[in-house]
Specification:
The protein is mostly helical. It folds into two domains: 125 residues, no CATH class; 205 residues, MetI-like (MetI-like fold, Orthogonal Bundle). Helices cover 75% and strands 0% of the residues. The protein contains 14 helices and no strands. Helix 11 packs antiparallel against helix 14. The radius of gyration is 24 Å and the shape is globular.
């Protein structure tokens, strides 16, 4: 594929994302207004009278018609203003930029853990059908889908923290003995390594392991299943039989021909798993007191915090669109035949 064709494909994907983002902005605005509860009453407090609540509602702009509120919301978005969270009193943009790296670090490490186990397991199961490895792969997939993340997290805490004492207390990203490293990327392990603070890096990694393994066990199942299915389908192809008949080494047939052709559906699965894990890790964040955007969104939903909920939904939508664009670009690099459509 030529550079021009790649640029056209990326530009087309970006154009396709615009109506999606516009639709998400409209839907999130309407859905947050449909939430039960009154944010003005929450902000005023339980002892406030009706007049005080109405005064706060007017100051928050909630007394205006929905179209007027929506226009004001869009104008604030253009300026990069996501509003003030009534539950924390802080700008939503500040809360999201502070909490998002925590969720990304947790989800990224969990996905690396899943890939490191699921892909080799899926490949071995495909090359040895109906063997003990294949049965192990099926058992892992079944367990990963069946066990809820909160149960897995509590079980790991009970075993490795309470019984064995190998893990630190599940109380966030760092224990009280360590200070947060200077912020560069927002990922504590990387920032501590950049600051050459190995003790803080070890402490941050120790806090990260159990929640990442908990989320990784949940995301492991679809990756292993797709890797096994894709490899089985490719290994039955005629070109694989031809390569074997030509006397090519088994490793070359497996990794150069089979895995390269089977990697496309696996990449799609990885993208979907990452998106799903980033939005569904709220239970893991709650169990381990992890200060991510998932727990922040749940707290905002409870009190009908419009600005926080809208900011969370918009942030997740932008992440999903960006991730899908990255997957499309990777597709063009892995499979140049896609460029023929341009």
């Amino acid at each position: 594929m030529t550079h021009l064709a790649r640029s056209r494909l990326v530009g087309w994907r970006l154009l396709q994302a615009i109506p999606v983002i516009v639709g998400i902005i409209i839907v999130s605005f309407l859905l947050t207004r449909a939430l039960p509860g009154d944010p003005a009453a929450y902000f005023a407090g339980p002892a406030a009278d009706a007049a005080s609540i109405e005064q706060i509602r007017v100051s928050m702009g909630l007394d205006r018609p929905l179209p007027v509120q929506f226009v004001a919301y869009v104008q604030d978005l253009v300026r990069g203003d996501l509003g003030i969270s009534i539950s924390t009193g802080q700008p939503v943009m500040h809360e999201l930029t502070t909490r998002l790296p925590a969720s990304l670090e947790l989800t990224g490490v969990a996905l690396l853990f899943s890939i490191a186990i699921a892909m080799p397991l899926g490949i071995l199961a495909a090359t040895r059908p109906n063997s003990w490895v294949d049965h192990l792969c099926r058992a892992v997939v079944t367990a990963g889908v069946s066990l809820p993340t909160f149960f897995t997290g509590l079980a790991l805490i009970y075993v490795f923290y309470y019984l064995l004492g190998w893990s630190p207390s599940p109380m966030g990203r760092l224990d009280f003995l360590h200070l947060s490293p200077p912020k560069v990327t927002g990922f504590y392990v990387i920032d501590a390594l950049l600051a050459r603070d190995l003790e803080t890096a070890r402490a941050a990694l120790a806090q990260l392991l159990l929640p990442a393994i908990t989320l990784g066990l949940f995301t492991l199942a679809p990756i292993a299943r797709m890797t096994r299915a894709a490899m089985l389908q490719i290994l039955e192809g005629e070109f694989i039989r031809t390569a074997r008949a030509a006397g090519l080494p088994r490793r070359q047939v497996l990794f150069t021909y089979a895995l390269r052709n089977a990697i496309l559906p696996v990449i799609t699965t990885l993208g979907m798993v990452f998106s799903f894990a980033l939005g569904a890790n709220v239970l893991v964040e709650k169990v381990f007191s992890w200060p991510g955007i998932g727990s922040y969104a749940v707290e905002a939903l409870v009190v009908s915090d419009y600005a926080a909920v809208q900011g969370f939904v918009l942030t997740m939508a932008l992440l999903f669109v960006t991730l899908n664009l990255i997957i499309d670009v990777i597709y063009t690099l892995v499979d140049p035949r896609l460029g023929l459509e341009e």
